[in-house]
């Protein structure tokens, strides 16, 4: 064959390879087959802090801007808010904390549309699993959707461990399963035992279409607020151990449960990032302050004290998982919101609550970012 013939064959082969690769990447882009973003399925692990969407959009790096079109609902018109989060009802005099919007540096995020979310989730079961920060986010999402479809029929069930809001016209149920450690606490002859290698409660999480997990705050509790007497690994009891180490062991047990029990083709899994507290003003260079009386976020896009150590534990555990898990990385953007806590304006907590968040308020942004991750 002539040199020209060889060149022609090489040219054809190269063109064919380019076409095959183009088709392959187009296939990947639509692999979910449901009109949803493919990052739910092609993530093999969650490495580092940031979840970056196609097009280079990092939802979690940005700053807060005042937006007078907020809040997205009125607390007095939402039937799902507990007194501990209803700051306006319990006397908070200022309202500006409700009117901040999160603006990512690299893109614009869509405004929340509860009707659209219900249509995407039609016939689905969504469950938040975790502590009172899961409760905070669950009530926020329920209020946001209710405000979007105020005439939709709903049912509301509240129990100690399992609660649910159902939007009956769409067949969508949003559950809350309360379990502050994710792993089990069992009463034994020795007392109350926190079992770092056991998740019997996980039986209640099966069959969900979306699971949104959260844990950390209770791992730091001591004294009378600590709900266990011993920790246990295998058959060995511990009176106590380093709490970050215990959190890592418990979260690893959770990760193993997810890898063994969740089919990622049927169930999407998210982890609600570590929610910060604002009891110590030295964390933002105001040593004599707490969240009490704060009315504005910190400016900029970084927090003077840096990220809490628990965020590293979460990233490390998620990076080892086989199941795709989306990290809703709300830690840093929430650290900037020293103004958004109930402080003295909680109907359930006496004193100064710099741990939970007012509704309407910051958890609405968490849910808006959840919605953005679904539709962008």
Automatic annotation (TrEMBL):
Gene Ontology cellular component annotations, sorted alphabetically: Golgi apparatus; membrane
Highest taxon, organism lineage: Eukaryota
Residues making up the signal peptide according to the UniProt record: 1-33
GO molecular function: O-acetyltransferase activity
Membrane topology recorded in Swiss-Prot or TrEMBL: Single-pass membrane protein
Domain Trichome birefringence-like N-terminal: from-to ranges: 56-108
Keyword line: Membrane, Signal, Signal-anchor, Transmembrane, Transmembrane helix
InterPro entries: TBL (IPR029962), TBL_C (IPR026057), TBL_N (IPR025846)
Cellular compartments annotated: Membrane
Keyword Iron tagged: no
Location of the Trichome birefringence-like C-terminal domain: 109-372
Family designation: Belongs to the PC-esterase family. TBL subfamily.
UniProt cross-references to PANTHER family, sorted A to Z: PROTEIN TRICHOME BIREFRINGENCE-LIKE 37, PROTEIN TRICHOME BIREFRINGENCE-LIKE 9-RELATED
Name of the protein: Protein trichome birefringence-like 38
Organism field: Punica granatum
